[in-house]
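Onboarding guide, step 5: your first structure request.
Type a short instruction followed by the sequence, for example:

Predict the 3D structure of this protein.
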Amino acid sequence: MERIMKRLLRIRRDDSAGHVLAQLIIGIFFISMIFLAAGLIIISGKGKLFYLAGLLIGMGLAVAAVINMYDVLDAGLRLNERGAATYIRNRSLLRMALAFVVLLAAVFIDVHAFAGVTLGLISIKLSGLSNKFIRRHLTKEDE
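The system replies with structure tokens like these:
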């Protein structure tokens, strides 16, 4: 786990915010794997492939969104108040629009793909909520 954490810290700065970013990415991955295991048990037939593809796309979007949030907040700190608010709002709207387009496409492809993308995107929230657990047990930082 130490090696994974060090590689993730290379994504951005190795500071406290960089550690939180790495922990969120680890959390997204582990939560998505739990969703994957549950989905493969529950779903049958061709739905498994659509679910797997949707979950991988949703997980990829979740990781990209977390990295983008980190970058946007970092850049927003260097702007004046009005410029920062506009920049952060526009980037948030762009992330939401991208998620909406991908979810809409998944609806037209297959219901299982939609479920996978949705769960992949929800993994951002669950990763944030489980950050204390991830920090203590997976990255061993709170000892």
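Each response can be followed by summary notes, for example: The first helix runs from residue 2 to 9.
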